């Protein structure tokens, strides 16, 4: 089920902000009109979920494989999904297929980076043997 356009926009910007933070940008202005500005050099927040020029490099940099499948939803009506790595996104939750794919790519990069951060913090944690 698709959410309102404003809620959808906000969810896209939230994903973009989360990705920017995972990439090391901790100070991001709250600018609704421009969907956020990185404080570092006043650089615009990339529109990773909304612009192929921003999203495309993520696809290749993180080597994300894409696949498409039909999924049975509700009363037997098929609904397409896009699979980006280990992330699955339902196409009908997005305005069009391009936006669904970009959203899936960003979600997958976030998953990869969060997994990397967890693994890195577990490596750095001192080992304490159990008594």
Describe this structure in words.
The chain is an alpha+beta fold and 131 residues long. Helices cover 43% and strands 18% of the residues. It has helices at 5-22, 52-61, 97-124; strands at residues 28-29, 37-38, 66-73, 77-84, 87-90. Helix 1 (5-22) packs parallel to helix 3 (97-124) and helix 2 packs across helix 3 (97-124). The longest helix is centred in the last third of the chain and has 28 residues, at 97-124. It is globular, with a radius of gyration of 17 Å.
Overview in brief:
The protein has 131 residues and is of the alpha+beta class.
Sequence of secondary-structure elements:
HEEHEEEH
Radius of gyration: 17 Å
Structural class: alpha+beta
How far is the first residue's CA from the last residue's CA? 51 Å
Number of strands: 5
Strand order of the largest sheet: 3-4-5
Low-confidence stretches: none
Give the rounded overall mean pLDDT. 81
Shape: globular
- Beta-strand share of residues: 15-25%
The number of helical segments is 3
Please give the structural blueprint.
Blueprint: H1 5-22, E1 28-29, E2 37-38, H2 52-61, E3 66-73, E4 77-84, E5 87-90, H3 97-124
Antiparallel strand pairs: 1-2, 3-4, 4-5
List keywords for this structure.
131 residues, alpha+beta, globular, 5 strands, 3-stranded antiparallel sheet, 3 helices
